[in-house]
Amino acid sequence: RSRSKSKRISGFDMAPPPSAMLGAAAAVAATGQIPGTAPTIPGMF
Amino acid sequence: CSRLHTKPSISPTLLLSNMYQRPDMITPGVDAQGQPIDPRKIQEHFEDFYEDLFEELNKYGEMESLNVCDNLADHMVGNVYVQFREEEQAQRALQSLSGRYYAGCPIIVDYSPVTDFREATCR
Fold it and tell me: How far is A33 from chain B (nearest CA, A)?
């Protein structure tokens, strides 16, 4: 089978579509969220 | 198979889980939109995949064997087994492929205990 040298692009490092990436990033951000800093109690030293 | 096979800590063989995605994986001979696919297209799709795979893996060392499971059952679907000559080559390939994507899907790579594919059955 002869195939020209100008090959189609390899599927390697073909990232998922941006929409899927955003979803994944958002999910990570949501789950990996650091809970807010401990509330400072007024009047305590 | 639903068994949890032991994963060796080092092996000349790598398993790339569920990497080959058949265009007709939902229904044989039919694409996701319900349109029939020319068998030649499926063959071509497979050959393109194999070529991509071979070219990438060949960077890490000489391969003893490269097996792609294109069965339609849910057992080992799309699993790719690649056996290198040396464990170090497999190790380099594993490190390099981890965290990368193929055609929009993350590459899941692990060592596989298989060293003789003629004898490779589920035990």
Answer: 22
Domain boundaries, chain B: 13-112
Read off the pLDDT of residues B92-123 as tens digits, 9 standing for 90 and up. Answer: 999 999 999 999 999 999 999 888 877 766 65
B65 phi and psi angles, rounded to 5 deg: -155, 155
Reported pTM: 0.76
Find the helix or strand (DSSP H, E) in which B65 lies.
Answer: strand B63-68
CB-CB contact of B60 with B96 (8 Å): yes
CATH superfamily of B13-112: RRM (RNA recognition motif) domain (3.30.70.330)
ipTM for the predicted complex comes to: 0.81
Partners of residue A15 in chain B, C-beta under 8 Å: 101, 104
User: How close B67 comes to chain A (CA, Å)?
Assistant: 18
Name B43's Cβ contacts closer than 8 Å, sequence gap at least 6.
none
